[in-house]
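I have been asked to look over a protein record a colleague put together. Alongside the sequence sits a line of tokens, each denoting a local backbone shape. I have pasted the whole thing underneath without changing anything:
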Amino acid sequence: MYSFIARQPIFDQDMHTVAYELLYRNGLSNAFPDVSSEYATSQVISDQFLGSPLQSVTDNHVSFINFPHKMIIDRQVFSLPPESVVIEVLEDAQPDDDLFSAITELHHKGFTVALDDFTMEECWARFMPYVDILKFDIRKHSAELIAQYISRNKLEKMTLLAEKVESQEEFQAFKSLGFSLFQGYFYRRPEILRNKKLALNITWLIELMREVNQQRIDYEKVGNLINRDVSIAYKFMRYIKNIRYQTSFPVEVNTMSLRDIALYIGDHELRRFVSLVSLYSLDDEKPVELYKNSVIRGRFCELIATELHMTYLEGDAFLCGLFSLLDAILDHPLHVLLEQITLSPRIHAALVDSKGVLFEILDLARHYETMQWLDVHRLGNELGLNDPQIIKIMTSAIHWADESY
């Protein structure tokens, strides 16, 4: 399963790329598909900010993301890291009190806000102190009309972006008007990128949706549901890293279980996360075997920690096994994927440095999967486990995963 994204560079007066606008695509056709703007934006967030490493798409540049009116006033924007994005308010957004309240909150929380295809209507005047970038479609408005508006409203100090620039002459003309950012075919057309996509287990996603919409959420059940699917768990950890600096998260978040993290962020934030990942995920595609193997590994590692009376390691052991196949699932190096989330040093040591007791447990699982029985026996002995114990634990882990898939 793949996700598709088009990126169009945004360049400065020296013709250096400084950002990319990310545009939803559902295939290799370089055109916006027939979907709602809410669906498109949710896809971009879920695939690019909660799935594949963002730097593989943006080369560590800032991303411009289109946001429709409803997603802004519903505060879906806050699922993104403010230092990595520019929030583009779509041109059909209603400049009402709800939008004004949301944009002022975005401004105070450190987000950069742009008005896309700016219409130059007076109803936007009160928004100007909280807006950072004005994007002008130069195919819709003449340079003279735009210059008059900028001068009349004293906007010379605001960042101005000319989009749909198609010639050197247009670039020079708007550069002379004080525009500092540019976008258009003159510089480069949007290019389509394809990335491996995290497929979600629909059964568990529906259960999670049902649970978080209860009047009283059972956080123990929520934690178990997140634990049972590697895609949901990884997206949840990406989401937590995105929002942790907007909340009063404790420094020791990397020692908390998924259940405790869900409880800490509370009902509202949890429902926001589930709505983001569920909007685009309800399709008929089945998870591949790698997903099930990830769950088996996670449960096996957790049960081994229990068997060794290392209860303090159970949560880390589960996540270590669960995330150990992410590189195979997403076709990115594991250390790059793990940089996108916050995990304990023990998990990082096991998955990246091949060190520590968690690595020894994970190594036991890997050798069992490949039926290297002499190594299984040797590794079990080193951990203080006999063969019947290991077989019983793996059988239990497989049965547990069978309930998920």
In short: The two ends are 17 Å apart (CA to CA). Confidence is low (pLDDT under 50) at residues 282-287. Residues 258-279 form the longest helix (22 residues).
